[in-house]
Amino acid sequence: MLTHLSVRHFATVDQLELEPESGLTVISGETGAGKSVLIDALSLTLGERADSAVVRPGCERAEVLASFTVANHAQARAWLEERELDNGDDCLLRRTVRADGRSRAYINGTPAPLADVRQLGELLISIHSQHEHQALLHRDTHRQLLDNFAGASDLAASVRNAWRQWQQARQEHDQALTGAREQNERQELLRFQLDELDALSLAEGELAELDQEQQRLGHADALIRLCQQSVAALYDGEEGTCNDQLGQIRHWLEEARDHDNALSEALDTVESARLQVEAAAEALRHYLDRLDLDPERLAQVEERLGQAYSLARKHRVRPEELVEHHQQLAREVDTLEHFDEHLEALAKAEQDAQEHYMSEARKLSKARKTAATTLTRQIATQLKALGMKAARLETVVEDDSPGAEGLDLVEFRFSANPGQPLRPLAKVASGGELSRVSLAIQVICARNLTVPSLVFDEVDVGVGGGVAEIVGRLLRELGEHAQILCITHQAQVASQGHQHWQVHKIQGKSTTRTRIQPLAPDARVEELARMLGGVEITDSTLAHAREMLEKGQEVA
Fold first, then answer.
1. How would you label 73-103 residue by residue, b for 16+ Cβ within 10 Å and e otherwise?
2. How confident is the model at residue 418 (pLDDT cuts 50, 70, 90)?
3. Is the dihedral of CA 278, 282, 287, 291 positive or negative?
4. CA-CA distance, 196 to 211, in Å (whole number)?
5. Do 69 and 1 form a contact (C-beta atoms < 8 A)?
């Protein structure tokens, strides 16, 4: 629920702090005192579009912070954790608007796009006012309310999941069918390409070996000459070979060692070098024995390399990828040859997914239609109690094409006056009617609410007397299941609040400031007396207000 609201430099507010508690908090004040400023500020933190006009004159920016506790709100916690924005049991929404119109939004201190802020805000709090963006203007809200009332939210989620699975299976089947129509042509092409690669039959690693052999055969004459020169210089020359020189050095060092044994290590090293020279010469002689000038073999190697490189260009792959490409084509040909079996499996998967979806969707439709009758009847009872005796509201569940939300179109249809046909709620209900319809529905659905905080902006417009008292009782009843903030002009509503806050203006010569303060019991009596009307507040008015407050607080 909302635990703290801080507003700075917003419209007529220079600085304001509000800490709502659970239950029903009523907010009252003179007309024009700035009660709507609270709603506007809260809406801003929930992702409403910003306007530089909200920045208090003479200030650089307006800032609004709204703190919520999400300790018992699994859906909001999951949303935050999924985006790595979680901060334990707390959630802080912050919004700033500069005088030049630029604005920024933050979730737990991290900059966030408005779309994310709005999405999270819808999980945390719902504002019910007389504005066109109100939730009841959208069919999606009607469907969600009905599903909540029917206790079918989990079933609705199952339907959405089944729909996704069906659509995925259908897409895979459709793609396969499209491929089937092109199968013969594709298979013929692949078979031709595969025959070429089969004829070449290039082995794994063979290309690198052929490259190396081609290099050796192509330079055999140079290799023979260089290796022969090396053998002669190392060992087989007539005079002055490395072996001869190392032998002479060994002889000198042996004679010198007789005079100083410290030369033994140097002598051993020279002997080791002589033996390595002998080994190198032997290795070169063996290499020369195996190395022949073989033009015929060279031609064979170059021809095979040419075939491999030509096929690589033709298939548009690198030469070293030719073996893998060959294997891939073989697998694809094998798949095409067994395509009928693959197609049958995909068709079966699509059919099973469709049947599962239809089964779940029909269960949901049945639950909705059963609940719609009960919800319509209960709403009618509440509307009469709210002074809308001639109003009718019907929860319509009509067949619709299959979709992610099931097989139904769910819509609240409303008629405010006798003789008028039922029409979509958004098209015919006035602001005050819409607020009271919303109140009636929310009270009925209170035990299934997923949004922990509700704000009602002047839900009592157009009512008074006994009806206003009933509105207050309903709001108080709703406050037993959710946190309620209600802006009201009716004393009968205000007397039902668990807490009462008063908004007032302080006007100076050049500035106007909005203030809000909690009211103690005596101050509540005075505010209720003011709301009851009259230029002068008399003792009888105060007595009436005190009695109204006592009676309101006795309501269970």
1. beebbebbeeeebbeeeebbbbbbbebeeeb
2. confident
3. positive
4. 21
5. yes
